[in-house]
């Protein structure tokens, strides 16, 4: 089964999701034809959200004692 990730767009009081042309051609979907969709809300991936943040190193965050 082909998969795609699309953004929902508000049109009036409804939300619309587009089906890409390559999937339409692959599945031979025609205008007005009923289709079945599986909806899953995507989880956000925060990887790269803070590009200036240095990588975490355990030794950098070690608690230091005044006796060391």
Describe the structure.
By secondary structure, the protein is largely without helices or strands. It has a domain at 1-35. 10% of the residues lie in helices and 9% in strands. The chain is built from one helix and two strands; from the N terminus they run ββα. The protein has a two-stranded antiparallel ribbon with strand order 1-2. A hairpin with a 2-residue loop joins β1 and β2. The radius of gyration is 23 Å and the shape is elongated. The termini are far apart.
Structural class by sheet pairing and helices: little secondary structure
Mean pLDDT score: 81
Instruction: Give the termini separation.
Output: 61 Å
The dominant shape is: elongated
Strand count, sense and barrel status of the largest sheet are: 2 strands, antiparallel
Q: What is the percentage of strand-forming residues?
A: 5-15%
Helix content: 10-25%
Annotation, overall tally of beta strands: 2
H and E order: EEH
| Rg computed from alpha carbons, rounded to a whole number of angstroms | 23 Å
């Amino acid at each position: 089964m082909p998969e795609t990730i699309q953004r929902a767009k508000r049109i009036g009081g409804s939300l619309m999701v587009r089906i890409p042309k390559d999937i339409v051609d692959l599945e031979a979907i025609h205008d007005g034809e009923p289709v079945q969709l599986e909806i899953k809300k995507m989880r956000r991936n925060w990887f790269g959200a803070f590009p200036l943040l240095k990588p975490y190193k355990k030794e950098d965050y070690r608690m230091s004692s005044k006796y060391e």
